[in-house]
Amino acid sequence: MSNASVLYDAPGPRAKRLDRILNWVFSLVFVAIAGLAILSAYNKGIFDDRWTVLWDPPKGQTAADVWHSLLVRGLGATLIAAAIAAPIALVLGGMLAVVRRGILLKPVTRSATVLTEFFRGLPVLLLMFLAKLVFGWSPLWSVVFGLVVYNVAVVAEILRAGLAALPKGQREAGLSIGLSAMRTTIVIELPQAVRIMLPALISQIVVLLKDTSLGFIVSYEELLRTIKLNRDYFGDQYLLPLFLVGATIYILINLSVSRLATLLERRLRERGSGQPKTPIEIGPTGPIPQSGIGGPAREEGARAGDPLFGHRARGGGENRP
Amino acid sequence: MQTFVENFGTIWGGFLATLSLTAVAGVISFVWGAVLAAFRVSPVGPLRTFGTIYVEVVRNTPLTLMFFFWVFVMPTFGVIFPELGFWPAVVALSLYTSSFVCESLRSGINSVGIGQAEAARSVGFTFGQTLTHIVLPQAWRTAIPPLISVLIALTKNTSVAAGFAFTELVAVSQRLMNANPSDGLFIFFGIGLLYLVITIPLGILAGQLEKKVAFAR
Known about the structure:
The structure holds two protein chains of two kinds. Chain A is mainly alpha-helical.
C-alpha cells in the first residue's frame, strides 16, 4: 500500500504478503457482492426495455418530453425553491446574529436566543406543514417558508459561533474608537466572522438544497415528485431508470457544492499565517508521513517523522479549544 | 388549544413513535457508523475505498430520496417490506445517519495529536494496541459532542417518515391541522415543544460534555 499511516508499521515482507492477500480477498468479496446483486437484478428482469424510457419512451412521448420534465420542471423547481430560500435565510440569519451581539438590551438578545434555539430544534417538515395547512400557502411558498425559518436559525447560530471565535481585541478596538456596539458588530466583527465561517455556511447551503426534497411530502412538484409523476404516467417498471437519473443529479450537485466548501476552506487556511495547507490526519487518507522504521519515511525528507519540527501543523490537532 | 388537549392520546402516541424510531435507528446507525469508521481508517485498501464511497454518496443524498428508494424503488428488486411504516423508516434513517456517525468518529480519530500515535508506535505498540489503548480513548471524548449533534439531527429527521406512511409526531400534527385549521398554531407549538423536549436536553448535554472534554485536555 502506498499511502501509509502512523497507526501501523512500514510493512515488512510478511505484512506485505498479508496485505496483498487481504486486498485481494476484500476486492473479490466486493466484486462478488456486486456480481450477485447484478445477477439477482438480471433475474428480476431489471435489464429489459424499461431503460428505453430515457431515450425512447412509450405512450407516444418523446425523450425530450421526459428530460424536459425532469431537468427543466423538476430540477428547475428544486433550484427555484433553494434560490429563493437561501438568500433570505442568509440575510435574516445574519441580522439575527448581529442583533444577538450588537444590541445590549437583555430582553432583545434573550428573545433572539430563544428564537434561534426554538426553530433550530424543529423538523423542517413541521414548519412546511404549518405554512401549508395552517396558513394555507401554496406548496412552493410552504417549502420556502420551512427552509427559510429553519435555516435562519442555523445561519444565526453559525455566525454566532464565528463572532464568538474572534479575538477579543477586535471588539475592544471598535468600541474604544467610539463605535457603538452595533456598528462594531456590523463593520468590524461580522465580515471576519463570515469569512471564517464561509465553509460552514456553504455546507449549510448543501443541507438546504437537500431539504428542498421535503417538498415531495408537501406535494411541491420538485425533482423527486416529478420522478414519481413520471412513474405514475409510464408505469411502475420505469421507476428505476428515472430514480437513478434523479439520484445522480442530486448527488452531483451536492458533491460539487461540498467540494466548493472544501476548496474554500483550504484557500482560507493557506492565506492565514503559519497555518497548515491541508488538515493533518492520522487516518490513512491524509498526507501522513510514514514514521515507521525504514520504509517510505526517507522519501518524506529530512524532517519526516520528527515530532517537534517535522510538521508544525500538528499542533493544530492538539490545541483544540 | 382544545384540539390539542382532546387529542392528547394521539399526540402522545406520535411522540412515542418518534422516540422509538429515534432509538432504534440511532442504535443501528451508531453500530454501522462505527464499522464504517473502522473501514475508513483500516490498513486494507478495498475497505477504505468502500467506506469513502459510501459516506460520500450517502451524505450527499437527500433523506427523502433515501426513503423513496426503500419504499418505491426497492420493490422492483423484489425487496418488499411486509408492511410500510416503521421498518422502512428504520432502514432509511440508519443508512443515512450512519454516514454522519462515521464522519464524527473519523474526525475524532483525526483530532488525536499525531505525536500520541507516534509515541505509541515508538514504544512498540502494534496497530491494534495503538488504536485501542491510545487513539480511541482520546478520540471518543472529542467525538461525543458531534455524535450527540448527529442524534439531535436524527430526532428531527424521523419526521420524514411522516411522508412515507409512518404515524409519528409530524404525521399526527398534519392530521390534526387538516381537521382543525383554526387551532393550527396551537398544534404547531404543542408538537414543536414535544420535539424540543427531546432535542434541548441533548443539546445541553452536548454543551456540558464539550466543556468537560475541553478542561480535561
